[in-house]
């Protein structure tokens, strides 16, 4: 964080700041940055999804409660660090987990509970749309959710007046503007990178499919308008300011950048928006984003075609299951230390467990782990069951066990990256990593380098994650100076400290062996789903 100098205090009181808020899978975070683009203060609130009637969801009450708590925590952090009150900001941006399904009626009321990216009940729709469009349509994309609801004859579909993502919904409530950043929009419906808008041919094809099923309007009339990075996307209304800050101290009128998804803000937070750059974000889910020089040769169901916040084509490897199972094991070991009355907190237990993996055998001693708490389309699973599988000759030690858990968090990602790197021959000059999995220095970063067989860098600021990324996008709107997003980020990162690890040959060989066993034992995972 920037020190509480008089210059920082002036920046706050003069509103030469940018506020970024991101609704992640387990945490809502707010970050305030100064004119130098470095964080001044932050606030956060933890939350969890719910599994209701067979679907993963968050309530909208939890959305607004979490946003208010996060902003209140940020206000208090500013007061504690800098001794001043936040009465307004220069620019604001909202980001959230991509994809999913938020269907609203003409009065702006939610028609069915928010269906998150984690749901995999859209397999029939995704397959049919992919065949018609000639491109991969992932299970979690908004258009797949809509088409599945139409196929299933859900009553609410005839009353839909607006479709959006979580970031788009919050932005609309804050500004009244039904817009979406192109990166997040590319997770709703395919984007034509030549026009920077939804693909017109595919829109027409969808309408032909949907009309006989009772679609209420043309799809383009339901979707938010698309905006690229650097363009303003409305201003904070008085009602919007009160939604964030019921205390009434936050002024309205602030300009907002286009709302973006967490994948796009992750790219910004790691300066991975130029061709041949990529990043990996690891939290509840794990995904890689690689900016392409040209379109891929073939369609692959394991690879999504999305865009950067500037509209450039990106290949995305998205895995539903990331570090949640690792966190569950950390909770179990924390319970054990509590039973022994050792007085060790969970953060210490987690770091100790993760670091122990460095002492494990390169191939995890023959152990195979699956971190599947939910379905995983890349390996054709509609549901998941966390498993540890070992043979009588495998070596069950703490180090091997933890190494297998970390490898499991990266294994499905590796399957998708193999297609991108080996089949499509996509080159990567720089790969950056961020997210909770990489907080323990030099462990998951080292294993990711082995998984993708490429150097992996972690930055000193990227730990602030997507909330910092959307704050940067807000700052770009405030003062672009005619710069492109890539040019702007090169300036921001000019003095950033990066730690880069090259792949260790022994780790690469060990990960190869683990993934071979991981693939071979997938029928065991499928059997566990069928029988439990």
From TrEMBL:
Q: Its Gene Ontology biological processes?
A: D-xylose metabolic process
Query: Which InterPro entries does its entry note?
Result: ATPase_NBD, FGGY_C, FGGY_Carb_Kinase, FGGY_N
Q: Which UniProt keywords apply?
A: Carbohydrate metabolism, Kinase, Transferase, Xylose metabolism
Q: Which organism is it from?
A: Nakamurella endophytica
**Where does the Carbohydrate kinase FGGY C-terminal domain start and stop, copy by copy?**
279-475
- Name any one Pfam family assigned in the record: FGGY_N
Q: Which domain of life is it from?
A: Bacteria
- Is Transcription regulation set as a keyword in this record? no
Q: State the family it belongs to.
A: Belongs to the FGGY kinase family.
Record-linked PANTHER family: SUGAR KINASE (PTHR43095), XYLULOSE KINASE (PTHR43095:SF5)
Q: Does the keyword Transferase apply?
A: yes
Q: Which GO terms describe its molecular function?
A: kinase activity
- Domain Carbohydrate kinase FGGY N-terminal as annotated: residue spans: 18-241
Q: What is this protein called?
A: ATPase
